[in-house]
Amino acid sequence: MDAIEPLGGAEFAPKQTYLNTSACALLPRRTIEAVTLLAEETADGRPAGAGDFEIVAEARAAFARLMSVHPDRVAVGSSVSVHIGMIAQSMPAGAEILFPEGDFSSVITPFTVRGDLKTRFVPLERLAESIGPETYLVAFSAVQSADGRTADFAAVRAAAAAHGTRTLVDATQSAGWLPLRAGEWDYTVAGGYKFLLCPRGASFLTVTEEAQDTLVPIHAGWVTGEELWVNSYGPVRELARSARRFDEPPAFLSYHGAARSLALLEEIGIERIEAHNKALAARFRAGLVELGHAPVPDVSGVVGVPGLGDRQAALREAGVLMSARTGFLRASFHLYNGAADVDRALEVLAG
After folding, report:
1. 34 exposed, middle or buried (CB, 10 Å; 0-12, 13-18, 19+)?
2. Rounded distance between C-alpha atoms, residue 165 and residue 147, angstroms
3. What is the 3-class SS of 120-155, one letter each residue?
4. For residue 49, what pLDDT is reported?
5. Residue 351: what pLDDT?
6. Which of 172, 184, 243, 252 is geometrically suited to a Cys-Cys bond with 75, CB 3.0 to 4.6 A?
7. Cα–Cα distance between 334 and 176 in angstroms, integer?
8. pTM for this structure?
9. Within its chain, how far is the Cα of 38 from the centroid?
């Protein structure tokens, strides 16, 4: 097979064979420098130590470009479950919410704890055909966390449009390597600390203008005002007209780093990263088949292998980091990986 070299150059220097981005990404050097600088400024009592809203705006704009939407459609926050909790609390009582079976709990639980919503679960491959006129919202992960399967975006989007169903896509396992046009969905959410290479504490929500009208900003505060610095006391005079009305107060250390990480992704290009990650995943799948294993059939950059979850500990002892999820061994490839990482993992599995 042809050699596949890592992308990102000197930004990354992993000390082990790291195939675990679906759990947590490696941070670029530039991101570590940005977080360290802000922490030092805070420790020194310098004015810049409070954090910079303009840098948060840079991160918002960069994420918007990666997702092919205007920055006005992007809200920032701390976690996917907080974003989805706001969406869940905005659903009308009795609404039917449709999910794939076994999707990530942060996509599902904010709806089930309501107690007054009708939740329905179907196999991922039947998601589109299961959307009906009674379905208020279909919520699913673009790439399944447990085994790397990708949803049929076009079929789900078409079925939702035919029935007037709103759509929610969790892009946490895809944003950063799989191109996605967020404006095609009512809501998208993405945790930043995986394929977006951001520090924990940065996450993103996109909301279409139409969907914004029925989304309740349940954690609105002074940062959600149309004019940022006039709402410190008393009720906010006017909420932001954009999706910024759904912001959480930003964790500045996280967002100072996020702005640098997202800039790196833009410099390399998501399409290039997609081709890179899929090529590594294909190499891994082919090697697994040669070893007599049957990986989940897909073209995803995340590979699930049923029945091999118990090999995670031995791989870790050999310096190869992967995840074990619901019996699957999960390998996730990203820009800092190369063919040597794939071959090393296969070597350990063959031993």
Report:
1. buried
2. 27
3. EEECHHHHHHHCCCCEEEEEEECECCCCCCECCHHH
4. 79
5. 85
6. 243
7. 9
8. 0.96
9. 25
φ/ψ (deg, to 5) at 45: 75, 25
pLDDT for 231 equals 87
Tell me, what DSSP letter sits at residue 250?
Answer: P
The pair of structure tokens assigned to 19 is 């195939």
181-195 burial code (b ≥16 CB/10 A, e <16) = ebbbbbbbbbbbbbb
Here the tokens at position 53 are 């809203």
Residue 75: C-alpha distances to residues 99, 207, 224, 248, 300 (Å): 23, 8, 10, 8, 27
CB atoms closer than 10 angstroms to residue 162: 12
Q: Name the burial class of residue 54, with classes exposed (0-12), middle (13-18) and buried (19+) by CB atoms within 10 angstroms of its CB.
A: exposed
How many residues are present in the chain?
A: 351
DSSP 300: -
- Can you list the residues of the chain whose pLDDT is less than 50? none
